[in-house]
Design a protein that fits this description.
seven-stranded antiparallel beta sheet; 3 helices; about 30% strand; Jelly Rolls; 11 strands; four-stranded antiparallel beta sheet
């Protein structure tokens, strides 16, 4: 008889996350990185922004890509997850460990990811939307890792996820963008928005995909 090995602390965290995703469509993981590592990422993001390496974010892809500040007002800087900035290496290492656990235990088939720094200035927002394109369903899980220290509800900038109900109604869940918090949710099913922020709001944001990048 084979005795099953107990889960490590990290595996317990990953198991809790995937169980929540499978039952509710989302997971909230607080303390995904130590506070020192999270602060170092925030400093790197702010330096990249100060150096002018961010672009205005748009909507759509390929021929349908457009800028529309009535829909979203944030700026982004794409990250190479295979050669990330030094402060991001621990984040990507842990994220890859989580993906491997998801694939091993639940056969999600995650094969690649795309991530970027995201910065909302005061007044920034992103109206309600889905994270998939009409011509591509590659994005399976949306992932957001927040970097904002001492965030208060009065600061705005909450992520709001919407869940349809069997009676035709819906309920919503508001999540504050607190430092060290990782949010994962089903990209294809969960509509969401970023409410208007009253101060700088920073994150690493992106998607876990079931097909490799073409570049």
């Amino acid at each position: 008889m084979t005795t099953q090995q107990p889960l490590s602390q990290e595996e317990q965290l990953f198991e809790t996350a995937i169980s929540s995703i499978l039952t509710q469509g989302y997971a909230i993981v607080d303390g995904f990185l130590p506070s020192e590592a999270t602060s170092a990422i925030l400093q790197d993001l702010q330096q990249a922004f100060a150096e002018g390496r961010f672009d205005q974010a748009g909507i759509g892809n390929q021929q349908s890509y457009q800028m529309n500040q009535e829909i979203r007002r944030d700026r982004i800087h794409w990250l190479d997850h295979k050669q990330p900035p030094a402060p991001c290496q621990l984040f990507f290492s842990r994220l890859q460990e989580m993906i491997a656990y998801f694939n091993r235990t639940c056969y999600l088939g995650i094969r690649d990811l795309e991530m970027h720094y995201a910065r909302y200035g005061a007044g920034g927002f992103y109206k309600r939307h889905l994270d998939v394109f009409h011509r591509s369903q590659a994005r399976k899980l949306s992932a957001i890792f927040y970097l904002n220290e001492n965030w208060q509800e009065a600061d705005g900038g909450a992520l709001v996820m919407y869940f349809p109900q069997e009676d035709g109604g819906e309920h919503s869940l508001k999540v504050l963008p607190e430092a060290g918090r990782l949010v994962l949710f089903n990209s294809q099913l969960i509509e969401h928005e970023v409410q208007q922020s009253a101060r700088e709001r920073c994150s690493i944001t992106g998607w876990l995909k079931d097909e490799p990048a073409l570049f």
